[in-house]
Amino acid sequence: MGLREPLKLIAEDCGLPVALEAMGERWSFMILRAAFNRIYHFEEFQSELGIARNILANRLSRLVDHGILMRNPCPDDRRKIEYRLTEKGLALLPAMIALRQWGEQWGSGIPSTPVLVDERDHQPIRPVTIRAHDDRVLGAQDLCWRQAEEIRPLSMSREEEAQAAE
Amino acid sequence: MGLREPLKLIAEDCGLPVALEAMGERWSFMILRAAFNRIYHFEEFQSELGIARNILANRLSRLVDHGILMRNPCPDDRRKIEYRLTEKGLALLPAMIALRQWGEQWGSGIPSTPVLVDERDHQPIRPVTIRAHDDRVLGAQDLCWRQAEEIRPLSMSREEEAQAAE
DNA sequence: CTTGGTAAGTAGTGATTCGCAACTTAAATC
DNA sequence: GATTTAAGTTGCGAATCACTACTTACCAAG
Fold this sequence. Notes:
Chains A, B: Keywords: DNA-binding, Transcription, Transcription regulation. Chain A has 7 helices and 6 strands; from the N terminus they run ααααββααββββα. The N and C termini of chain A lie far apart (52 Å).
């Protein structure tokens, strides 16, 4: 039977299945990207993405159910509904940018214009990387797993000590 | 007809559709995660993930086709085949970690043990963030789009100037 | 207040994919 | 030679996807 088991039940030690449960379907990330690009209404999503209407309705509902989008009826035109990113939805930006940058760099090498830049000085953003607590950039070979109990704080800064003491 | 158009044809200005074309299917990220966790063989993936065998075979082939995994017959046991991450596959680590961290933080708030730590000092890694060229952390409101031509270098370091002059 | 148009969503219909189990092939092991 | 193991492949029913057409609620013009 195609009764698909939620992915999050498979490896609960990890947040990845939880994230995929919410965002792992075919159009979810494209809808999220559109929402970041100030697309707010059903018809806008539909014409922007070319997605089938029933699928779009289903995805938007799912994203709302997962608390990634919020559904606000427009006060000025009560036919219209605005889908807006919640805080939880906005928090997906690093994941989306990381995916996007990977696609740019490794997928058929498109220079990809327009470029995403820092609004303050209009310089391109850096590639998204894994960072150690002291901001060193880490690769896959620099990482390993530890139980939470094994982690011991070493050489806190003043700020961090003050924060930890709360 | 369900003849699904590749997502990358829809918005070519962006690497996201390209990334989703390769990694957007149901099990792809779970397989990638397993590969990062030193799962290399078909039967290991199968028992680790509980995925159907035909789907697993299909996904592994697709990931190999996309250059994310490489398929190496084992010299010692010629029945066995090792699926190993390529450089392109390893480059997905930031995207995967970003997704994982989002799932941890926003999905039912699991503390998530074991924790991913820096191998050098066994301290937990930082949350993945968007960074400006000078390493400032940026949020969604700090970003905007620019044409590549509009970007002008300002205040290069010696190294960057030397690199740009090549 | 009726007609036309727009926004959002639903229903119907095939094509495709998914999930499960059983089967196949080739190589290693007993 | 017989059995076991690794890596798939095949067949089938269920779920999902995509396309089109239809519906409902609302706004706007005449």
